[in-house]
Amino acid sequence: MRLTGRVLYLLDDPVLMRRQLDGGAIAAADALGCLRDDISTDEIIPARYCLQVGDVLAAHCYRGLRSGTESVVGRGSIAGHGFEVSVAGLRRGKGSSREHAPYAEQHAGIRLVLASSFERIYRQNCHNLGLVTSTRLDLLPALEAGADIPLDELCADLDDVARMIVDAGGLFPYTRLRQAAPTAGRPAIAAASPLTLAGGILAAHSRDGAPLASPGAMRFFRTDLRYSHEYVTAMAELLVREHAPDHPLADPDRILLFEDHLTALARTPEVDEDAVASARELARAQEGFAAAHRLRLHGRAGEWSEGICHMVVTERYAEPGQLVVGSDSHTCHVGALGCLAVGVGTTDIANAWVFGDVLLPVPRDLLVMVDSRLGPGVTEKDLMLHLLAMPPIRAGRAIGTVVEFAGEAVSALDIDARCTLTNMTAEMGAVSGIVAADERTAEYLIGHRGMARAAALARCGGRPPDPGAFDEVIRIDAAAVQPMVSLPGDPGNAIAVAEAGDGIRIGRAYGGSCTAAKPRDMDMYATVLGAAVRAGRRVHPDVEFFIQAGSQAVLAYCADRGYLDIFERAGATVLGPSCGACINAGPGASTTAADVAISAQNRNFPGRSGPGRLYLASPLTVAASALEGRITQYGPRW
């Protein structure tokens, strides 16, 4: 590869960023010391610009990027200005699995994406589109000097299949070659033994029928369920029409579609009516795709959704031992049932619709053993924030792993609580999270599916994990975990609530998203607000508190238990199912940079839920803070 255009360094320094955008150049030596780390896909292209598909996305490339505390990239700052290489620091592409991010970069003229390290889904999305990625920042001086760098050098750390996908120009072109010559491009596969729970599922679903390869190797696996939502389906359908217009979809009865991400967009404060119209176009495109292929669509239920996709798949479809893929990074939520549930990009899900299999990296295995029990007022969300703040996780050691949770504390958790653990493995950079199916899983399948007890127990014969089978083991004493709060900017910025002090005033509280809108979460909101109502208290007058159910089943659960009355009497606003404020598409999102909010959702990357400062905490802490008007710990006085 020979550079004919410019290099764009994504920097913490707003002055140096502006110099580049104004046409100036900076030396690699000056730039490498202030590269931005932890750039999320929300920063590469904010969610509000993803309501359209096609070349229009290029104009919004890097619109959400923060340099220091400033946003310096404007509309059209990248496209048409000669940038061919984009350079960042560690963990580039965190967060959402949206393929709009590398698509915007590619259509803005970027040919080579460099970073010290990458998040899995983002890097794979780049390759699926034919974008070259590399961690060889040491080659920048040679590139800038006009040298022709062989792809073998740039892509030295890529697995053989990933390299063949890049060489072919993307996943669909590679798949055509693979379908034409089924044995081509399939090197010998090394055995891996002993197998973990995730490894056993992958081995059983290997498309080649061979033992697993070494960790990091890309392989194709048969899928049991494939699902998508309106935010992605329209773009995926475009890829199907472009690359496989005459090819039938594989096993269409195993494909599920959801309208859940944008159903509350029209209720967002100061919403752009054009954005609402674009959201409806995405929904209509999905409806047409579902009708054309006779696919199961979970659409609107009145003004809201039937449910957030991950929650409905958990409630109604997934089973232990399955391989489930979804076009959303929080697909890992479903792993609480003892299946392997993996979030994938747009090209991956489109390819899976057509061919029935999915390209995944063989993961490393990380065991999180949680000993003893969580203390009073300490929740599974606190456990996850505690884990995210641990040095090994902050250093990226969970990237590319499947995280299996086990131990006394995990065994004591119900399925809803386990879903919080597996859901937030996405924030660890993991491929997925999983909990072995046991008697609690069987009871869930019996209660939610009406499954016969014998059949449920037969699917849930979980065994204790063998620590020797894992690449790494992290042990946590659950009794030592405290109520936690994540400071704005990253879920890993977590500290004990007691360390945060009592002076952080809030104007908004949000209890919702796939992470915190389950029946157990509603129990926690009701515990705090119910005590407040009995004491004659209400939500603080300076705070708006929104509680959003994750599915129609959860809404019915709240109604049956009298929670809706409690929430209303306490001064909270109850919302129907939708992804809502978590993606800045509903009530509860901030509207100005001065806004301060606390949320039980999973992410607080810059711009994720509006321009304000967003803290993350458990449902108990969020509800207690809504009553006090400041971030505070739930405790005995409640």
What does this structure look like?
By secondary structure, the chain is of the alpha/beta class. It has four domains: 6-168, Aconitase, domain 4 (Alpha-Beta Barrel), CATH 3.20.19; 221-359, Aconitase, domain 3 (2-Layer Sandwich); 363-480, Aconitase, Domain 2 (3-Layer(aba) Sandwich); 484-628, Aconitase, domain 3 (2-Layer Sandwich), CATH 3.30.499.10. Helices cover 34% and strands 16% of the residues. The protein has 25 helices and 24 strands. It has a seven-stranded mixed beta sheet with strand order 19-18-24-23-20-21-22. It has a five-stranded parallel beta sheet with strand order 8-7-6-11-12. A four-stranded parallel beta sheet has the order 1-2-3-4, covered by helices on one side. β2 (83-88), α4 and β3 (112-115) form a beta-alpha-beta unit. α5 (120-129) runs parallel beside α8, α11 (230-243) packs across α12 and α11 (230-243) packs across α14 (346-355). The protein is globular. The relative contact order is 0.10. The model is unreliable at 184-193 (pLDDT under 50).
Spell out the blueprint of helices and strands.
Blueprint: E1 6-9, H1 14-21, H2 28-31, H3 41-44, E2 83-88, H4 100-107, E3 112-115, H5 120-129, E4 132-134, H6 140-144, H7 151-154, H8 160-168, H9 171-180, H10 197-204, E5 218-222, E6 225-229, H11 230-243, E7 255-258, H12 273-293, E8 296-298, E9 300-301, E10 304-305, H13 309-316, E11 323-326, E12 340-343, H14 346-355, E13 357-361, E14 364-371, H15 380-388, H16 391-394, E15 401-406, H17 408-411, H18 415-423, E16 432-434, H19 439-449, H20 453-459, E17 472-477, E18 484-486, E19 494-496, H21 497-500, E20 508-511, H22 519-534, E21 544-548, H23 552-560, H24 563-570, E22 573-575, E23 596-599, E24 613-617, H25 619-628
Helix pairs in contact: 4-5, 5-8, 8-9, 11-12, 11-14, 15-18, 19-20, 22-24, 22-25
